[in-house]
Design goal:
Elements lengths: L1 H42 L2 H11 L1 E6 L6 E2 L5 E13 L6 H15 L3 H8 L10 E4 L4 H9 L7 E10 L7 H4 L2 E3 L2 H7 L9 E3 L2 H5 L1 H4 L4 E7 L5 E8 L6 E4 L3 H20 L7 E7 L5 E7 L13 H8 L9 H4 L9 H11 L8 E3 L2 E3 L3 E3 L8 E3 L1 H7 L2 H11 L1 H10 L21 H33 L3 H26 L6 H8 L9 H12 L3 E3 L4 E5 L5 E4 L4 E4 L4 H14 L7 H4 L7 E7 L7 E8 L6 E7 L5 H4 L1 H11 L7
Parallel strand pairs: 2-10
Antiparallel strand pairs: 1-8, 2-3, 3-4, 3-5, 6-7, 8-9, 10-18, 11-12, 11-23, 13-16, 14-15, 17-20, 18-19, 21-22, 22-23
Helix pairs in contact: 10-24, 13-15, 13-16, 14-21, 15-19, 17-18
Length: about 675
């Protein structure tokens, strides 16, 4: 028994020793691996980890680059940069209790609620080594007070930032656009281009479409930080590179005249008892498509977005019933009224259905199932040919030839002159306008029928379905079903009465031939179509930028005129139309009142576009000089009456500015 116990003890010791040896071997292997790894890291990876450690202690803080400036065709600065002073804080590891006296002092100096300052300090998106912007665009006197008390404001500094400056306030606002802090959706789309929250970004106009040229390259200051991300010292600065400058086709004098004249025309219409509130004017160089002026009224001061603008102030502009942010020159489509009649004249001449000698007797009306009265009714214009038809704006003449040639021919030549399609100008949100077709009319009428009658059908069904389902007797169920069908039939009868409008009718052609009905074009399209008439049939792509110049004066890009097409109209027929337009400003023409004493011969066309339930829009298109055209103009003043009294005076002021005639300041 004792021997067996002794043998067992010996065996147990052997097992323990064996396990111990295995354990020791494993530990030796582990230490060997660790030692080899340490040796590898120290010998072969030393430089790599030294670099990583060094980079881990370095921080870059970006410096905003000045955006490129914007000039008119003569070098007048339209947009520049001004120094903007911001109050910033670098947290040096202070606790909230330690920061409280600092926040209290800042709230007094900045006249700002302490809670707003705390909200900035506690912003979780700001990293510890980065400057926290406490206040933006502070006045110089506040800057002086902060610098004088700097010893009591640890971590506070004044940071310079270039900010947009608009020397002419709201002039050209819709073309230039404005900048604001980049919005989340924009940041998501442009993160790969180096943008971060807090960066400035063009929000509209050329500031937006040419953002990549204007933005410049950020600079940076490099900091060394300690283990707690607190700045230790500055290691140097990389200076920012300014953005590229834009040199526009805009003539500041013509632009200023357009904006002042539009405001005056709207005011005059209001004084006369009309509901006018807005308008637009465009001027184009007929020789190359350069936009000389693009005015939209009312406007807004782009500089309001450059400072520390509040959400309430932005909301006020965004929700204004006058819609000042809308660029009516390219984003709004209007019935052109009689300014469209040159298209109908060209279509009739080119079709061969009429000759220059073709005449119509105008008794003051046109009969097609009913009487359509010309604007002189009960008087008429007598015997009218195509040139006189343009001169006196005879509706009867254009109804007659429009009915002769049909809407397809009119639409064909409207499209030739760029109406009903986007021009491709360097601005976002351009409207295509409408050259009406039977398909377009059907779509519009169907949408109106659905909007008006579908809710009525649904209401009847909603009313009777539960009643019929709950009916106890067949008699009651039958009565309710008959009542429902009667109400549905009444609505269907109204629907069918208006569904007749789904088909294109002769009166649609009449409306189209004088620029009414579904016709809708932008002021830019009207100016460009008149430019093509004036220059002999070349349709250019309108453009706003002449050159882009780099910060060192180098040419980055130069824009050349781009011909969209030569319109398919004979020189002889274009000359007939031009002669008719030149008669408009002569004795007997509808534009004579505005231009009878103008020293330079101009050609034009008045338009009075009817707007259902509202005052008429005043429209005027023109070019000058008559014999050697240089500039074409289109003006629309909303709900201001006739084109001769609302639009023509605006064009007159723009011509004066372009030809350096006497213009009231």
């Amino acid at each position: 028994m004792e021997r067996k116990t002794a043998d067992r003890t010996v065996n147990d010791r052997k097992v323990i020793n064996k396990k111990l040896n295995v354990f020791i071997a494993v530990m030796l292997l582990v230490f060997l691996v660790l030692g080899a790894r340490v040796a590898y890291l120290q010998i072969f990876e030393t430089e790599r980890y030294r670099t990583l450690a060094r980079e881990n202690s370095l921080r870059l803080v970006s410096i905003a680059a000045p955006r490129g400036e914007i000039y008119d065709r003569s070098g007048v600065k339209l947009v520049g940069n001004r120094p903007l002073y911001n109050v910033t804080l670098v947290k040096l590891g202070q606790s909230k209790e330690e920061l409280e006296p600092l926040v209290e002092r800042l709230s007094q100096l900045l006249d700002r609620d302490p809670d707003l300052i705390w909200a900035r300090i506690d912003d979780p998106s700001v990293r510890r080594y980065e400057r926290i912007r406490i206040a933006k665009d502070i006045p110089l006197e506040t800057v002086s007070r902060i610098e004088e008390g700097a010893i009591n404001l640890p971590g506070i500094s004044i940071e310079f930032e270039p900010m947009r400056e608009y020397p002419y306030d709201s002039t050209l606002a819709h073309v230039l656009g404005y900048i604001r802090e980049i919005q989340p959706k924009q940041l998501e789309q442009h993160t790969d281009k180096g943008y971060r929250m807090g960066d400035q970004f063009g929000q509209d106009g050329l500031e937006n479409t040419l953002e990549e040229y204007l933005r410049g390259q950020k600079g940076a200051v490099q900091f060394e930080v300690d283990a707690f991300d607190r700045p230790v010292r500055s290691l140097g600065v990389r200076e920012p590179v300014p953005g590229n400058d834009l040199h526009l086709t805009i003539d500041h004098k013509v632009q200023d005249a357009a904006e002042r004249a539009l405001a005056a025309s709207v005011q005059a219409a209001q004084t006369a008892g009309m509901t006018s509130r807005a308008g637009s004017a465009v001027a184009i160089d007929v020789r190359n498509g350069e936009v000389l002026a693009m005015a939209s009224y009312p406007a807004y001061p782009p500089g309001m977005f450059a400072g520390d603008v509040s959400a309430a102030e932005v909301e006020e502009v965004l929700t204004s019933p006058d819609r000042p942010l809308i660029n009516r020159a390219v984003q709004s489509s209007y019935p052109p009224g009689s300014t469209f009649k040159m298209i109908t004249a060209i279509a009739a001449l080119e079709s061969g259905k009429i000759t220059p000698q073709y005449t119509v007797h105008d008794p003051g009306y046109y009969w097609l199932g009913r009487m359509y009265t010309c604007w002189t009714y009960p008087r008429g214009h007598g015997i009218v040919n195509v040139e006189k038809g343009i001169q006196v704006s005879c509706n009867t003449f254009f109804w007659t030839v429009g009915k002769m040639i049909g809407h397809e021919q009119i639409a064909k030549y409207a499209a030739e002159f760029g109406l009903g399609s986007k021009s491709g100008i360097e601005l976002n949100g351009e409207a295509a306008g409408v050259v009406p077709t039977p398909e377009y009319k059907r779509t519009m009428v169907q949408a109106e029928l659905d909007r008006r009658y579908n809710p009525q059908f649904d209401a009847v069904k909603k009313k009777y379905t539960p009643l019929i389902e709950a009916a106890v007797t067949d008699e009651e169920r039958g009565r309710l079903t008959r009542e429902m069908k009667q109400e549905q039939a009444r609505i269907q009868a109204q629907y069918d009465r208006y569904a007749w409008e789904l088909t294109w009718r002769d009166y649609d052609t009449l409306n189209m031939s004088i620029g009414q009905g579904y016709n809708a074009h932008t002021p830019l399209q009207l100016a460009n179509y008149v430019a093509a008439i004036a220059n002999g049939g070349t349709l250019y792509r309108p453009h706003l930028v002449r050159r882009i110049i780099g910060p060192n004066g180098e040419m980055v890009q130069e824009y050349q005129p781009e011909i969209l097409r030569r319109v398919s109209v004979s020189d002889e027929n274009l000359a007939i139309v031009r002669n008719g337009m030149s008669l408009v400003t002569q004795h007997g023409g509808t534009g004579f009142g505005a231009f009878w004493d103008f020293p330079i011969p101009t050609a034009g066309k008045t338009g009075t576009a009817e707007i259902a339930g509202k005052d008429n829009n005043g429209v005027y298109v023109a070019y000058a000089p008559v014999d050697n055209p240089e500039i074409a103009i289109a003006v629309i003043v909303e709900q201001a009456g006739q084109g001769s009294t609302a639009g023509a005076p605006v064009a007159e002021e723009m011509f004066k500015a372009y030809f350096n005639l006497d213009v009231e300041p």
